[in-house]
Amino acid sequence: MADNPCDAIKGAAKAYCERGQNPGEIPEPSIGGGGGITGGASDHVQDLADYLMRKIRGLIAPDNAWVPERSDGELFDPFLWLGQHLAVAIFVCVVVVCALTAWQGAPRLKQMGASTGWTLVAVAGMASVPGAVMLLNRAVSSAFTVAFSSNESTLFGAISDDLEHGADAGNPLAVLIIFSALVVALAFAALVFMTRQLGILAFVCIAPLVLASLARGGDLSAVKAWAQRLLGLIFAPFALLLISPFVEFAHGSLVLDAVLLIAADVLMLRMIFHGVPYFGPRVASAARAMVESRTSSPLARAVVRAGAPDFYEKENNPRGPRTVDTPSRAMSQDRGVLFAAYGMNKPQRPGRLTTRSAVEKERREASESAGRRAQLSAVRQQYRPPRAPAAPRSGRSTNPPAPTPDSRDPAAPPRPSPGRPSTP
Fold first, then answer.
1. Cys-Cys crosslink for 353: which of 139, 269, 341, 358, Cβ 3.0 to 4.6 Å?
2. How much is the pTM?
3. What is d(CA 294, CA 217) in angstroms, rounded to the nearest whole number?
């Protein structure tokens, strides 16, 4: 049998039991580290806010990207093999063509030398792409962490400080508002994470195929287009730096911090719209449609409309909604650039609006023209002078009225009908 009857009790009740036996030895346990129930609750609120902010920061700019760290990874190795063999095949074709046309002299020797050098550059560059992208992603993640949570002058640092020392730190409504804004920002950050990581992975995997085009003679057009889109995906989180100058103005109020988080949501949608190639406008538009279908709040709808504006799918239009390419057309244009780098001319098909965009454009133009016509009619009616009433005619008319059949002279003989002789 146990000497201490309190040994069978677990948790805080055991402390109360032991304190009842020896009141002078066991101090009264405190909840939440010495602050009582209120202090413990505030600590939990602070911990939850820090957890949400860490998750948002980790989703927007994670330390590890979905990219193989080495070139011999299972996912990247087949693309590397294909790119290297393609570059060597192109180099062999160039050498054969230069040998068959060696009578041309210096131009062919120059072309063969350029092909040799660029083939070596392409083969060496293919293997270094995953490591370079991984190092660049870690640098971006570190810079983003410093820019957004290093001290109290950054966004997440200001939110953590305002939860403890802000003017409305003890206001439950303000705490609820800031937590709601953090949860919404977490959802947008998850969308940014998925689209950004998938895009980086896709562009890293096609890197050997793009770099192999250099073996023909150093045409950099396809490499420039590929690098532009990949770097746009990697550096996309820095778009949130636009709200950094306003952090100091919002410091001290949780409600103003929530306003900055809403602005960050808009920038994250814009980040997807402009930074994700090919499918960015479609993904941002789908997120906007989902939000608009699930809420009737004018503020929420205005936020998503600011992040994902209306657009047509073809080319930029200075008036009305902008026009962007469909995913297939955008990929076809970049594929044409890649084929041109390989020396194959791909004909460019003229672009046209999709059926849905054409219908929306016709409806928009019809509504605009109807409203314009109604406005012009109202302006004309407003500024048109009133018409004077017609004055009555004075005197008789000099022209007699035309005779009617009933007003003929009864004594006059009737006219003969055509084809009949007149009767005496």
1. 358
2. 0.65
3. 55
